[in-house]
Amino acid sequence: MTVRRVLAFPLLTGVLAGMLAGCGIRATEVPTDFGAAPSRARCSLSEPEISTQASRGVPVRVFLLCGSSLVAVDRAVRVPDGAPDTQRRVLVAQGLLDQLAETPEPAEKEAGYTTDVRGGMSVRGPRPKDPKDTLRLSTAPGDLTSYALAQLVCTFSDSAAAEGDGSVILGGPAAGPLRRYECTDEVRTRPGTKEPPSSAVTEG
After folding, report:
1. Which of 59, 75, 147, 168 is most open to solvent, judged by the fewest CB atoms within 10 Å of its CB?
2. What is the dihedral of CA 193, 197, 202, 204, to 10 degrees?
3. What integer pLDDT is reported at residue 152 of this predicted model?
């Protein structure tokens, strides 16, 4: 190899490296840093002070949607002192329903929490001949979205609105059929595709 070729080889290598750099391509194989990855919903919140919850009423939990699953968050509902048990169940159920229909708090929204329960719904106790633990919604359960129904069932079943076994009897406003619903692990993890298990309920 002549002296001219020996000198030309490193020169050519430097030119190619410069051309690659000019095109925005690095000559090395070091990974390029494109900045921080987009933030993801963490679905986790700091626990509120127990004293703060107590000052708002009876501590309860409601199930919101986050990351396509149901996640429990702390809330509080107000129930008058001395209310009879039958009335107390309905008051708790209405308070839970109102909490589910509210827009999630700023910290919850930032963490990815949402709700599919719409405002304006109400709940009443049993009609004549209904089982005593019946809760009748102003919107029939069958007319709710799968997400909203899962939120309601899991929230009610985890509260004083449920029966002793954790199930809840729901019906619509008219004297129509009643069904007993349960909240399962599958419902909590896949509320959009797995509806709460239910069975028909006869008149009480």
Report:
1. 59
2. -110
3. 97
Q: In DSSP terms, which residues pair with 134 in a beta bridge?
A: 169
Closest CA to 170 of 190, 151, 192, 194: 151
3-state SS, the chain, equals CCHHHHHHHHHHHHHHHHHHHHCCCCCCCCCCCCCCCCCCCCCCCCCCCHHHHHHHCEEEEEEEEECCEEEEEEEEECCCCCCCHHHHHHHHHHHHHHHHHCCCCHHHHHCCCECCCCCCCCEECCCCCCCCCEEEECCCHHHCCHHHHHHHHHHHHCCCCCCCCCCEEEECCCCCCEEEECCCHHHHHCCCCCCCCEEEECCC
Write the single-letter amino acid at 172: G
Opening angle at CA 68, ends 66 and 74, nearest 5? 30
Question: Per the confidence metrics, is the pTM higher than 0.90?
Answer: no
Q: What is the pLDDT of residues 34-93, one digit of tens each?
A: 333 334 447 877 665 444 444 568 899 999 999 889 999 999 998 887 777 778 889 999
Kindly report, residue by residue over 176-191, the tens digit of the pLDDT: 889 999 999 999 999 9
Closest by CA position to 46, among listed 3, 131, 101, 110: 110
Q: Which two tokens stand for residue 191?
A: 């509320």
- The C-alpha R_g of the chain, in whole angstroms, comes to 29
- Mean per-residue pLDDT of the chain: 79
